Structures are given as structure tokens and as C-alpha cells.
């Protein structure tokens, strides 16, 4: 979707992709054929597991490889009160799309930004 969108745009800008090679082979980092043929680029990925929005107490927003690490940890611990949203495009920031997804978690009392770098870097 990213490459297709880059070619369809009228204005040509440099495309910079920052991603680790490990995501190329990650078992959870996949798209269905339907996503590729009829879907479009999503700036924010919604929660992918079946989680009841009314029991979610914490929403974690992240970007990149850490999304899959958080997802695996949540599944391993069988936690169902934490939602994980992944921002796929940081600039321009997808505020509208993020607010739309956050609005479904009415009982949430914590919103966390998670990134993989330690505080001191």
C-alpha cells in the first residue's frame, strides 16, 4: 500500500521507510490478499484481537516492531483489558484516525505511548 500510494500521488516526495529487517519475516506481520487487492494504507492499525472495548482499562499506542512484542506478551499473559493500537505513519500525525479508534474505549483510564528505546537514549 505504501509503494502504491507513493506512485499514485501527484506530488513526488522522497519515501523514507525505517523498519527492522526482522519484520519482513515476522509471523504476525502479514496482510491478507483482500487487504492488498481492495484495501488501502491504514495510518493507524486498530486492535487486532477480539477484545471487548467496555472492559479495556489501558490503551497502549506504539509504532513499529514493539507492536508485535506487546501483542505476543499480551497473548502469552492472556490479558484482555489492554488494547494495543499501532501508528503506521508518524508524519503527518494521524490525529483524527487515532481519536476515532480511541473513542470506542470509553472506560479507559490510561493512555500510554510505548517505544522500544530506553529513556536515556
Note down, in words, how this protein is organized.
With 121 residues, the chain is an alpha/beta fold. Helices cover 27% and strands 15% of the residues. The protein is built from 4 helices and 4 strands, in the order ααββαβαβ. β2, α3 and β3 form a beta-alpha-beta unit. The protein is globular.
Q: What is the domain total for the residues?
A: 1
The separation of the N and C termini measures 32 Å
Give the radius of gyration. Answer: 16 Å
Number of helices: 4
Neighbour order of strands in the largest sheet: 1-3-2-4
The assigned structural class equals: alpha/beta
Beta-strand content estimate: 5-15%
Q: Give me the CATH fold name.
A: Rossmann fold
Low-pLDDT parts are none
SSE string: HHEEHEHE
CATH architecture type: 3-Layer(aba) Sandwich
**Number of DSSP strand runs:** 4
So what's the oligomer here?
single chain
Keywords: Oxidoreductase, Thiamine pyrophosphate
Pfam families: OxoGdeHyase_C
Cofactor: thiamine diphosphate
Organism: Priapulus caudatus (Priapulid worm)
Amino acid at each position: 500500500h505504501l509503494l502504491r500510494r507513493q506512485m499514485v500521488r501527484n506530488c513526488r516526495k522522497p519515501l523514507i521507510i525505517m523498519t527492522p529487517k526482522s519484520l519482513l519475516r515476522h509471523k504476525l506481520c502479514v496482510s491478507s490478499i483482500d487487504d492488498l487487492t481492495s484495501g488501502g494504507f491504514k495510518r493507524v492499525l486498530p486492535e487486532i484481537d477480539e477484545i471487548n472495548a467496555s472492559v479495556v482499562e489501558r490503551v497502549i499506542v506504539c509504532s513499529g516492531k514493539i507492536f508485535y512484542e506487546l501483542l505476543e506478551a499480551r497473548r502469552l499473559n492472556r490479558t484482555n483489558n489492554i488494547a494495543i493500537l499501532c501508528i503506521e505513519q508518524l508524519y503527518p500525525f494521524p490525529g483524527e484516525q487515532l481519536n476515532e479508534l480511541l473513542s470506542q474505549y470509553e472506560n479507559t483510564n490510561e493512555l500510554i505511548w510505548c517505544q522500544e528505546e530506553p529513556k536515556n537514549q
